[in-house]
Amino acid sequence: MGTFRDYVASVLPRPFAQRLSAGFFGVLHGFTGDTLADGMSIAARMALLKDPMSPDDVLPLIGDERGMPRYPIETPAQYRARLISAWEAYRFAGSEGTIVQQFALAGYPGVTIYFDPAALGPNGEAAPYWSQFWIRFPYSSGHPVTSPGTNWGAFNWGDGTVYGVGVSTGFYALIHGIVRKWKPSRWICRGFKFELADTSIVDLAFGI
Fold it and tell me: Within the chain, where are the H helices?
């Protein structure tokens, strides 16, 4: 493929004028045109995730477009790989396996879907309520929950006690976001079960 510099040289009149003007016009028009063309080519390739010219700062934009925000533990390379495989993930969206897979990608391997046939429905409906489920985090998953926290009513408001299980709002947003996005549409998530080091379980309702 030719360049603008080649084109400018080809249209300059007569060999004498070409020898005198090739450098001037080559820089003024040819080099400028080639630089702009290279810039437009690179810009057009930025969103091509497998292209070596695609920069990491384009990943949030593509992630937003594909509805797949970056998980806190992901490196740019890992995030890029997940965005590349987005269509495969969406192919199996709404399945138990996809929920489990997304939690593993987010840094919590071993998460399972938990059903309790004896549990009443979300509004007290008689058991079994087939569409409700819980997400169970084994202790080995590395989740940040370390205790059941302080019970409501066991402290005086404003005395400095931190209510809750002591995890960040970012963690809440992450686990809720994964479930909301990838669960089967007809299923109802009732909450999360976190196994502690002593094998006891901390229950958190599906809220926020």
Answer: 4-11, 15-25, 32-45, 59-65, 76-84, 86-91, 96-105, 169-182
Residues 6+ apart with CB under 8 A from 206: 176, 179, 189, 190, 191, 192
pLDDT at 168: 85
Backbone phi and psi for residue 203, each to the nearest 5 degrees, phi listed first: -100, 130
CB proximity list for 205: less than 8 A, separation 6 or greater:
190, 191
Judged against a pLDDT cut of 90, whether residue 75 lies above it is answered with yes
Q: What span, in angstroms and rounded, lies between the C-alpha atoms of 38 and 144?
A: 48
**Is the Cβ–Cβ distance between 157 and 107 less than 8 Å?**
no
With a CB cutoff of 8 Å and minimum separation 6, the contacts of 108 are 137, 141, 142, 143
Q: If we measure between CA atoms, which residue out of 53, 6, 45 comes closest to residue 25? A: 6
**Residue 31's pLDDT is what?**
55
Structure tokens at 113: 């879907």
Residue 24, amino acid: F
CB-CB contact of 122 with 134 (8 Å): no
